[in-house]
Structure formats: structure tokens, C-alpha cells
Design a protein that fits this description.
Chain B: Residues 65-253 form the ABC transmembrane type-1 domain. The complex is a heterodimer of chains A (288) and B (261). Chain A is mainly α and 288 residues long. Chain A contains 13 helices and no strands. The radius of gyration of chain A is 25 Å and the shape is globular. Chain B has twelve helices and no strands. Chain B has helices at 6-33, 50-56, 59-92, 97-105, 107-110, 113-127, 133-157, 162-169, 174-203, 206-211, 219-229, 233-258. Chain B is globular, with a radius of gyration of 23 Å. The chains are: A mainly alpha (288), B mainly alpha (261). Chains A and B meet through helix 1, helix 3, helix 4, helix 5 and helix 6 of A and helix 1, helix 3, helix 4, helix 5 and helix 6 of B.
Chain lengths: 288, 261
């Protein structure tokens, strides 16, 4: 009954040790290259020759910071809304057609996903600029006489950003819709409901977890967008990420850059935390 | 299902337009890259390979291409074994802390990349890794790990660990049973994970903008700088090649994944 070492317990301890040893190299890389640097950022934002909240005071009171945060949230909201409006029908169609067609539709959705963001920024510049494809086409068709300003402004940023983030909306939507049993729709129909009523009362509510997952992913990714607004925004659409990089590269304001980065990160984590109370994080992240 | 109500027709039309919006920008670059015009003109006046020649004969672009390929290859060689061993441990271990570790390993997907980039820049500045090849590779290993882990975990889900137990009860040691029994069955998802890590390293831009420099600048960094100044069709040629490479790799990866495992 006393302390004779239990062989199975010893075995289990060895097993635990082995598993931790196997996971530790990857964990070490993550700790060294993301946890430590981001922790350092946070430290730098409150410590400079002594403890200070000056950086945060600036972020929360100075006009340029406020405006940038407000603009970033505004753009993210607009982009998320548009992505939902465009993505829902596509996911719905992919879910309601025979398998071969749905594979084709999903492949078309995922195809641009695997194209470099930089390449797509270039493509949108080629399409939207003053001498770009669309403006030339419009003039050729004599719809317009003057080239339209489609890029180097917020419009161009939004068009290209939605393009990049749309797959993150469609995939979770499709995954959720696929799990909705089609019997339910048939039941609705057999009880005399019109297709549109069954859609609104049965299908739509059941697809809401997918809507939430897709919107979260698109919104959060958009908050941190850098390349697209930098190349297509024309310098006037200063999103938070550009604020971070300018403070580092142009002004050498490391403390301010860190404070902005921390506020951005906390916003993202807060969103994930709130959403994770409703749906599991795996469901949001599993799509990437 | 196939009854064509007005709502159904609207659904088809809207979806078709959205799909065109998704695909068109990806396809538009290739014709531009084969155009002879110095500036963007549509339709292209005539066919030419001059932008490809421009790219292949430019020492700076070639150096950047070598850096990109070297970094991507080294990233795969390091990230794949690390990711496989981590995924194996996560799927096998019953330790409660493993869930937390799993979440931490997916952090690169959660933290906005601009924050990661600036953080790594500060770290590298302290330890002298800015503008070095090891610095670039290390950062890309970190960013590629989640892709390997997600892919291999998916593969391990359909694998029955009892098989490995059988091999071990027949006298194989742990390592041998892993290589003889487990690995062959999850090989496809390991290869797929490696390919995703390669693409991720090839396309990575933002971290490279901050930490690369001198002779160790990948293609994406040079492209970004070039795009800020002017729209040179040489970039269309590079973009077309990069896109083609990505697609071939993705096709390989998904063919692998479909084979099971």
C-alpha cells in the first residue's frame, strides 16, 4: 500500500516527457519569434528610461492616431459587410448544386487565395489606375470621357481588400451550410412554407455560426492590413498598420509604434475572445 | 432544386459576377506580361517576351529570386520536421497543457502580421540578425509552422494510433514504428504541409520589408519597392511566374491530400 513506484505511472511520466520533448522545438521557435518580440513591444510601449504611459496618452488623444483607428475600424466594417453580401450567395450556390459544380465554385474561390497579395495589388493597380484596363475600356465604349479615379483612394483599397478577404468569408459559410440537413428544408416545404420563407426562418438562422466565423476572420484580418492600403490607398488612407510602420521607418518613434501595435493587438484578441464565447476558435481559424 | 425561380436566376447571376471579380485580377496579369507596350494598354498592341527578358537579364531581380528560393527551401526543410513532431505530440498526448501549446503554435495566424514584423525587427536589431539569411529563414519557419501543423493534424485524425501500438508490441521501438507505420500513412499531409510552408515563405512580404536588406532581399520586397514607384511590366512577368508556381504547388498539395492521409 505504501510507496512502491507504480510502473504504469512511471511509464506515463516518460510518455509525457517524450511528448513535451517532441513539441518543444516548434514551441521554442514560436516563443522566440512571436511571443518574445511581441512581449518586448508591449514592454517598450510603457518603458523608456522609466515607466511611462505617454505613448498611450498620445495614441488616445492625438488626432492623427484617433482618426487612423476610426478609419481602420470603419474600413474593416465596410469590407466585412461587402464580403458578407458577396460571399453568402456564392457559398449558398456552392452548397445547393451537385458536387462537381460545388468543387468548381470552391476552386475558383480558393484560387486567388493562393496568389501573392502583392501580385494581386499589382493586378488591381493595372485594372483600376487612370490608364488602366477598366478606364481604357470605359473610354473605348464611350461611357466616360475622362478617366475615373478608381485607385490611390479609399475606393481602390476597399475593392482590393474585399478581393483578398472574400475566401475567408466563403469557406466558413460553406462549411456551416453543408452541415444544415436538407431534410429541414424539405420539412419546411412539406408544411407549406414558400422557399423564401423556409430560407428566412430555417436556413438563415442555422447558417449564422458561419456568418459569425466569416465576419470575425475578415474583420480581424482587415484591421491589420498593410500592403493593400499602402499600395492602393494613395497615402491618404492611413490605416493603423501604416501608422505602426511609419513610426518605425520614418520617424524612429519606437515607443509610439509599439503602443499603436499593442492597442491593435488587444483589439484583435478582444474580438477573438468575445466571439469564442459563441463559437469555437477552431471554427474560425480552421479555415486559413 | 433545378426549378428556375427568379430568385434562383438572381442567385446564379450574382454568384457568377462575384466569381468573375475573384478570378479576373488573377488572370489579367498574364496578358499584360506578354504585351510589348511600355505602359499598360488594353488590348495589348502585340505579343512580346521583352518583360521576361528584362527580368531574367537583371542581376538584382535574379539575386532576389535566388534569395526567395533559398529561403523558401530552407524554411520547408526546417519547418516540416518541427511541425510534424509537434503535430504528432499534440495528437498523441493527453497532457492538459497540450491544448494551450496547440493554441500558441497557431499564434502566427492570430497576431496581425505587421505587429509580428515590427516585433521581430526590434529583436533582430538587438541580436544582429537584420539583413541576414538565417534571420529571414527563421522568421519564415515561424510563419510556416501553423500550416504544417494544421495539415499534419488533419492527416493524423484519420490515422488509428493503435496501429503503432501493434508495431511496438511486436518489438519495434518508438522511433522505428513511427517511421515504418505512421509516417507512410500521413505522408501526403506532410508533403502538403511542406508545400504550404513553401508558398507561405515565397509570398511573405511584410516581415521581409522590415528585416531584409542588402543582398538578402527576397523578390517580394523588391517588388513592393518597385510598385511604390511605378508600374513596370517586368513585375507582371514576375507576378505571372510566381502565380504559376503557386498554382502548380497548390495542385500538387491538394492532389496529395486527396490521396488520403
Amino acid at each position: 500500500m505504501t510507496s512502491v513506484p507504480d510502473p504504469s505511472q512511471k511509464h506515463q511520466r516518460r510518455e509525457h516527457g517524450l511528448m513535451l520533448a517532441l513539441v518543444s522545438p516548434a514551441l521554442l521557435v514560436i516563443l522566440a519569434l512571436i511571443v518574445l518580440p511581441v512581449g518586448w513591444l508591449a514592454w517598450q510601449s510603457i518603458y523608456h528610461d522609466g515607466f511611462t504611459l505617454e505613448n498611450y496618452r498620445r495614441v488616445f488623444t492625438e488626432d492623427i492616431y484617433w482618426r487612423s483607428f476610426a478609419l481602420t475600424f470603419e474600413i474593416s466594417l465596410v469590407v466585412t459587410g461587402i464580403a458578407l453580401l458577396l460571399g453568402y450567395p456564392v457559398a449558398y450556390l456552392a452548397n445547393s448544386v451537385p458536387k462537381g459544380w460545388s468543387i468548381l465554385i470552391l476552386s475558383l474561390v480558393v484560387l486567388p487565395f493562393w496568389t501573392s497579395v502583392l501580385v494581386r495589388a499589382y493586378a488591381w493597380l493595372a485594372l483600376l489606375q487612370r490608364t488602366g484596363v477598366i478606364n481604357q475600356l470605359l473610354r473605348y465604349l464611350e461611357v466616360t470621357s475622362e478617366p475615373l479615379a478608381l485607385v490611390h483612394n479609399t475606393f481602390g483599397t476597399v475593392v482590393a481588400t474585399v478581393h483578398i478577404l472574400l475566401p475567408f468569408m466563403v469557406l466558413p459559410l460553406y462549411a456551416t451550410m453543408q452541415k444544415i440537413p436538407s431534410d429541414l428544408m424539405q420539412a419546411g416545404a412539406s408544411l407549406g412554407a414558400s422557399p423564401s420563407l423556409t430560407f428566412v426562418r430555417v436556413f438563415l438562422p442555422l447558417s449564422l455560426p458561419g456568418v459569425l466565423a466569416g465576419c470575425t476572420m475578415v474583420f480581424v484580418l482587415c484591421l491589420g492590413f498593410y500592403i493593400t492600403p499602402e499600395l492602393l490607398g494613395g497615402g491618404r488612407t492611413v490605416m493603423v498598420s501604416m501608422l505602426v510602420s511609419r513610426n518605425v521607418e520614418l520617424y524612429n518613434q519606437f515607443g509610439a509604434a509599439s503602443a499603436v501595435a499593442v492597442v491593435l493587438l488587444l483589439s484583435v484578441l478582444a474580438i477573438f475572445f468575445v466571439v469564442s464565447r459563441f463559437i469555437s476558435l477552431d471554427r474560425i481559424l480552421g479555415q486559413k | 432544386m433545378t426549378r428556375l425561380s427568379p430568385a434562383r436566376i438572381a442567385l446564379y447571376v450574382i454568384s457568377a459576377l462575384v466569381l468573375i471579380y475573384l478570378i479576373l485580377p488573377v488572370l489579367i496579369i498574364a496578358p499584360i506580361s506578354f504585351s510589348s507596350a511600355r505602359f499598360l494598354t488594353f488590348p495589348p498592341p502585340s505579343f512580346s517576351l521583352r518583360w521576361y527578358q528584362q527580368y531574367f537579364s537583371n542581376a538584382a531581380w535574379m539575386q532576389a529570386t535566388r534569395v526567395t528560393l533559398t529561403v523558401a527551401l530552407l524554411t520547408v526543410l526546417i519547418a516540416t520536421p518541427l511541425g510534424v513532431s509537434a503535430a504528432y505530440a499534440i495528437s498523441q498526448s493527453k497532457l492538459r497543457i497540450m491544448r494551450l501549446i496547440h493554441m500558441m503554435l497557431l499564434l502566427p495566424l492570430v497576431v496581425p502580421i505587421i505587429i509580428t514584423a515590427v516585433g521581430i525587427f526590434f529583436l533582430y536589431a538587438k541580436i544582429g540578425l537584420v539583413a541576414t539569411l538565417p534571420g529571414l529563414v527563421l522568421a519564415n519557419v515561424m510563419l510556416g509552422l501553423p500550416y504544417v501543423i494544421i495539415s499534419v493534424l488533419a492527416g493524423l485524425q484519420s490515422f488509428d494510433p493503435a496501429q503503432e501500438m501493434v508495431a511496438r508490441s511486436l518489438g519495434m521501438n518508438r522511433l522505428r514504428s513511427f517511421f515504418a507505420v505512421t509516417l507512410p500513412q500521413i505522408k501526403s499531409s506532410v508533403v502538403a504541409g511542406g508545400i504550404f510552408a513553401f508558398i507561405s515563405a515565397m509570398d511573405e512580404t511584410i516581415v521581409a520589408l522590415f528585416i531584409s536588406g542588402g543582398q538578402y532581399q527576397p523578390l517580394t520586397k523588391r517588388m513592393f519597392t518597385a510598385l511604390r514607384d511605378e508600374i513596370d511590366p517586368t513585375i507582371a512577368a514576375i507576378s505571372t511566374l510566381m502565380t504559376a508556381a503557386s498554382f502548380v504547388l497548390v495542385l500538387l498539395a491538394s492532389a496529395r491530400q486527396k490521396k488520403g492521409g
